[in-house]
Structure formats: structure tokens, C-alpha cells
Write a structure and sequence with these properties.
By secondary structure, the protein is mainly alpha-helical. Helices cover about 95% and strands about 0% of the residues.
Length: about 150
């Protein structure tokens, strides 16, 4: 009866754990996507500057230079915003991981409790069987002793 209740609790814990694990995996993938976007922006900025420097060696007009500076500023802002998104995604993934690991610990604790309960029940049964065997052996001994005394009296 108790084991059935524990089995139900363990099943519920496993379902929750699987759900939390899926959420962690999803959050981890999202984090990796955000990190790739960040790296893509940073690489694009570097390439854009290099290309602009190559083109600029021939000389830039003031209007082109202003556009270049403005565009780099916009890229810097985008990189900054994406950096925040990466940080938030990393924190969310870590939080989901901790939730999943906590649920995993709870499930393992329940399984350990059931295991200990099973061992205790088995020990109780073995003790009862030993007690019954000892009682039977004692009764058999007493019968034989009584039978010997009856034989000696007759």
C-alpha cells in the first residue's frame, strides 16, 4: 500500500523531471542561438571595419565617413543588446538546469526511501519467518521430549 503511494509519487516526480529537463534543453538551445547571433554581429562588425578600412585607404568623403561611424554605432548598440539577450538566456538556462536537478534529487530521494522501506519490510518478513521456524522447532522438540517421557514411564 505504501509502496503504491510512493510509486505514484515517483511517477509524478519523473514526469515533472522530464518536463523540467525538456525546458532546460529548450532554454540551452535558445541560449546557444543567442550566442551565435552575438558572435555573428561581432564578426560582421569586424569584417565591416576591415572592408571600410580597405576602401578608406583610397580616401573617404566626409559623408561616407559619417555613414560609417553611424553604422558602427548602430552595430555597437545591436551587439550590446544582443549581449544582454545572451546574458538573460544563459541565466534562464541555468535556472532551468537548477530546477531540473532539484527535481531529480527529490525523485532520487523518494526512490531511496522506497528502497529502504522495501529492505525494512524484507527484514521484517525474514525475522517473522525465523520466529515461526524457531517456534515450530521448539514445539517439535517439546513433542519429542513429551513422547520420550511417555515411553520412559510406560
Amino acid at each position: 500500500m505504501i509502496n503504491k503511494r510512493f510509486a505514484m509519487l515517483i511517477k509524478i516526480q519523473q514526469e515533472r523531471e522530464e518536463k523540467l529537463q525538456a525546458q532546460f534543453v529548450s532554454a540551452q538551445q535558445f541560449y546557444q542561438q543567442q550566442e551565435q547571433k552575438y558572435q555573428g554581429l561581432a564578426n560582421y562588425r569586424t569584417e565591416y571595419i576591415q572592408q571600410s578600412q580597405q576602401q578608406g585607404s583610397a580616401g573617404l568623403q566626409s559623408r561616407q565617413y559619417t555613414q560609417f561611424v553611424n553604422f558602427i554605432g548602430k552595430l555597437d548598440q545591436a551587439i550590446l543588446q544582443q549581449g544582454r539577450a545572451v546574458h538573460q538566456a544563459r541565466a534562464a538556462a541555468e535556472q532551468r538546469k537548477q530546477s531540473w536537478l532539484t527535481m531529480q534529487k527529490k525523485r532520487k530521494a523518494l526512490e531511496l526511501l522506497v528502497e529502504r522501506n522495501n529492505v525494512a519490510e524484507l527484514q521484517r518478513q525474514l525475522k517473522q519467518e525465523q520466529k515461526n521456524a524457531d517456534e515450530y522447532a521448539n514445539q517439535l522438540f517439546m513433542r519429542r521430549l513429551a513422547a520420550q517421557q511417555d515411553d520412559n514411564l510406560a
